[in-house]
User: What shape does this take?
Amino acid sequence: MAKPSLPQGTRDFAADVVRKRTYILGAIKNIFERYGFEPLETPAMENLDTLMGKYGEEGDKLIFKILNNGINDPKNIEKSKAGFEKVLEGKSSSDLTERALKYDLTIPFARHVAMNHGKITFPYRRYQVQPVWRADRPQKGRYREFTQCDVDVVGSNALLNEVELCNVYHEVFIQLGLINYELKINSRKILTALATLCGGASKLIDITIAIDKLDKIGLDKVKEELLQRELNEAQISIIEKYLLITGTNEEKLEQITLLLAHIETGKKGIEEITYIYKQASNTNLQIDFTLARGLNYYTGIIFEAKAPAEVKMGSIGGGGRYDDLTGLFDVPGIPGVGISFGVDRIYDVLEELKLFPTEVQAGTTAIFFNMGEKESLFAFSMMQQLRGKGISCELYHEFSKIHKQFSYAEKKKIRYAIIIGSKEMEQNYCLVKDLNTGLQEVVLFEKLFDFFNK
Amino acid sequence: MAKPSLPQGTRDFAADVVRKRTYILGAIKNIFERYGFEPLETPAMENLDTLMGKYGEEGDKLIFKILNNGINDPKNIEKSKAGFEKVLEGKSSSDLTERALKYDLTIPFARHVAMNHGKITFPYRRYQVQPVWRADRPQKGRYREFTQCDVDVVGSNALLNEVELCNVYHEVFIQLGLINYELKINSRKILTALATLCGGASKLIDITIAIDKLDKIGLDKVKEELLQRELNEAQISIIEKYLLITGTNEEKLEQITLLLAHIETGKKGIEEITYIYKQASNTNLQIDFTLARGLNYYTGIIFEAKAPAEVKMGSIGGGGRYDDLTGLFDVPGIPGVGISFGVDRIYDVLEELKLFPTEVQAGTTAIFFNMGEKESLFAFSMMQQLRGKGISCELYHEFSKIHKQFSYAEKKKIRYAIIIGSKEMEQNYCLVKDLNTGLQEVVLFEKLFDFFNK
Assistant: This one.
């Protein structure tokens, strides 16, 4: 058969990568739990009609659909034939596919809440760390299967939730050593007020789409785009003034107050952002009125976390407040706020900044060398005692040349080699060699556990 | 839109279930790591030709295939049309689907080893805990998405690997409290010797298929089946003698020696099983010559773990030695041995025997009640201090009636409620109510951490 390969855009994770990913996800989950969030897991598959129409036309195309079972089965050809023809006529695809792989964690979460809203205790504080699938064109840093990591509070309008999420970002990133990460916040209410000032709320989408590109294309091009989107010079000049607000958080709040506090929505937005800024114990928080975030379902505070400036990575997380999680599933009145962590990008940032602690990559602590049949059975029983006390160890599987055993230990990055030959067996000690330093010690059997437990 | 629902055979896991599953998987992974096994993760999707033809005709039908991206896209109708026709002609389905969801962990593991055999350090000790998908008819205890949990050593013929895997089973099940679980072992070599004695090795499959049903249909029906499978009375009488071997492990070994040790394969099998039985520190190990296991790729020792007899659950794990992991992918000469844990069944067994420790189900330790705006901001800062010290807690999101807050805490099974009103704020203490006992204590702010850390 053909050489085995992986589907485009997917990856195997060998031990070193799994361990580093587990380290990141462990740190994140630990903070989530400490903040009283509960885990939720939903299946990889959802019904197709749960997903379709939720991510825009482009998104729909990127959903991986699952072929109905039996569609390729010769016995079902007759049935399938009808199915295919229907598809070709463009009437229905349900004979071909009724299920799909989840595209994000938000819609499955909404589906879960809608299905169980009578049983769930609100506010529902949930976190979810699972893979999602997108039929995007694979490229560097973009995969077809990747992990999303979301945390949301739904069923509550309290701004303290936003404050908590600012603190969650802070604790996670500090824990991971990303001391200089940036947390940018803005409010869609402030953007709405800006739109009101510039031709009415209907201009909101045009304005946010243009502002969203500021980082990439610069102010002049944003102004050009606004012109193309039929804003006039006076309006664009207000937006320019808005985009040029700079200074400390306090200074920015002063300037935005002058510009937008006379509009009701603006006043509300400024109050909210001030409250969050004051209550959050997050020294990396920056109010940034140029933050827009493309997704139109955000209605209040929006967040974006960025990698430390020395790494060219950009966003490593984002989120915001939305009015209505489950309206699409006919359960209205469940507002919420949530953030997510870009796990793959955080991984790359920690790698680049060499922030993974060495102990994360440690596997087996010690290897017993195999010095013959009798010796290896003896080593085996010593090993079981160490394992019983929580020390991870293994025994080389067969009696072979010592350099082969050393080479195995080195390749597997095992730190200690334990050698028990017939002489050592008789005299109740072993040789323990530290493969990092090359130092060798004589250790009595009865002291072996203490040696590793020191 | 229609009421949201889950695809048949799939499940959402809410917090209590996730926590219990995490407890089981944590115990298993912990033992794996202690035994020097390394984690591996492979993608949910594999190329269709990696999976097809590996699980027999029935298995192929149960593989979930993924529709090629864009196949439903109007722009691709012309292209798709050709694809559909080809499928209908039965020539090729590759225009319709080229990827599928993984059906087990063994084939993706083999594919990974075949792709990376030049880089991997052998013996490769890997464990893998991931979901798999099967388009089986859903029924009680059988799901279309479920977790498999495999551990294998490949690239080694040493019997010590089998011994270690016996010990892994033992440590995991004892850790989980399944004191009376049973570990049955047999050897395909012994079964082969039996076949040799009864009409030749070609009868091996007939004999194992029949023996495999012994538990379900009983000895008489097995004999009937053997007759149908064209074994004669004399042969069936040998098999009956074989199946009636009973007694202690030592007694069984004596009887099997009389029956089969004169055949070379039988002698080898008996030696191996004796070695494993003697070296494994597993008091729950039972030699059971009626164990057959259906899968034909097993060539040496076979394992089956069973739930304690008081639970009607049967197998909770199984495995065995195979000669050739990657031959199907044109990389010959990689033998191995592996076992798996039936996570969903272990879950049901622990549930039935009430073996989940209560602390597994604990979420948030304490909730600060919301006694008004000023009080809640104060409580918030107290809460952040506790969280900073690793105590999981939350603050009720809004000022509302106290009974509503109690009800929320109870529903979420939060053990302690912390009440800080204006009087308490002034006098530097809080009321801590234990919702399990109903007892209320006055705790000074400076002693609050100690209260939870006691």
